[in-house]
Amino acid sequence: MAMIGVDFGSSSVKALALSKRSEHYVVDMVSEVSTPKGCVVDHQLQDIEALTNVLQQVRQDFPFRYKQAATAVSGTNVITKIIYVDTDLSGPELEMHIELEAESLIPFPLDEISLDFEILGINDNNPGKHNVLLSATRTESVTSLAGCLEENDFIPQIVDVAAHALARSHDLYLRLADLQDDSKVVAAIDIGTNMTIFSMLHKGESIYSRVQNFGGENYTRIISEHYTLKRDEAEKMKLAQQLPLDYDIDVLAPYITACIQQIRRNVQLFTNSGTLQKIDMITLSGGSALIMELAQEVESELGITTRVANPFAQFDYAEEVEDKERLIANGPRYMVALGLAMRAF
Ligand SMILES: Nc1ncnc2c1ncn2[C@@H]1O[C@H](COP(=O)(O)OP(=O)(O)OP(=O)(O)O)[C@@H](O)[C@H]1O
Ligand SMILES: [Mg+2]
Fold first, then answer.
1. Helix, strand or coil for residue 109?
2. CATH number of domain containing 206
3. Enclosing domain of residue 235
4. 134 and 216: one domain?
């Protein structure tokens, strides 16, 4: 099925379509269009009008046969939990059971939420139970994303959870880099513009996730305050790497320290929360993963092997993809879109 993964980011909307030829992944098309300021926060649409232009540009980049789209929600609008359900339940019985469980777990009225669930497999400790990943999302955020896609000539097929999309794409990265190991717990961390998503992976599935309001915008703020620049000038200088010579001590080091603090705290929250008490590896994505020093600093400060998740150099590319090199260089920023595009298989 031709499926476009559409990631509504607060800096840009990123869209990607993928196909598979035997064991090779092929990037069929990719598009990125800047998001007007403030229009998207936490994958929630604040200004649908302003996004129409953006989505029409994306639409034009894709051949006509691409219609189906998968997108994602995140943040405080989503609750995900693993629940344990008898293996002999199926169909409507299973759905009813899940609704009942959800009612007791979720602090919103059920008629305001959309439930989604995925059977992960048999519980290790109790073979009579399935581990079931339950996601509850405010219906309002699902319908506004789906509606916006629909109005712009896409068919919104899937509204996923960003942490799960990241689980899929980071797991693919681990597999292609020969780092996959089912006994290990991996923290997939996406540091975007305004948010950081933590998705803890075990056996390729997200078993825990959390979203923090933190990201590259914090770096921009440090730059703008330190050098007394307007926000947009600071952002431009950051991206063009035109900061004064001593930027690494003055602005980069404090930002890296802040990133490490966020990661340390969330690793602790996870290890205190459940049965799997250790993170064996960290994989980074999102714009801040492009800061060369970050992975190395995280690894040495936390004592956990840290890699930048970027499988894009290992993909094949359709001829129509014009900016292959740019995509490979920016791969970590496309990890949500990639995980969504993978829903095609
Ligand atoms: N080479 C780079 N070095 C440092 N920071 C970068 C680089 N490229 C992009 N960024 C920063 O990364 C952020 C954009 O990353 P990304 O595309 O992952 O965000 P987004 O998905 O649009 O936002 P969010 O996920 O928060 O909604 C911006 O803050 C940008 O300044
Ligand atoms: Mg993002």
1. coil
2. 3.30.420.40
3. 180-309
4. no
Q: Which ligand is nearest to the CA of 32?
A: 1
Q: Which atom of ligand 1 is nearest to the CA of 35?
A: 22
CATH number of residue 84's parent domain? 3.30.1490.300
The answer on pLDDT for 229 being more than 90 is yes
Q: Which pair of tokens denotes residue 311?
A: 């499988």
Residue identifier of the C-alpha nearest atom 6 of ligand 1: 287
Which of 45-49, 91-95, 323-327 holds the top average pLDDT? 323-327
164 lines ligand 1 (CB under 6 A): no
Half-sphere exposure of 8 (CA within 13 A, CB side): 35
pLDDT band at residue 325 under the 50/70/90 scheme: very high
Give the SS3 label for residue 132. Answer: strand
Is the CB of 74 inside a 6 Å radius of any atom of ligand 1? no
For residue 299, which of 283, 310, 311 has the smallest C-alpha distance? 283
Structural domain total, the chain: 2
Ligand 1 pocket test target in 145, 284, 333 with most atoms within 8 Å of CB = 333
For residue 171, the one-letter residue type is D
Residue closest by Cα to atom 21 of ligand 1: 9
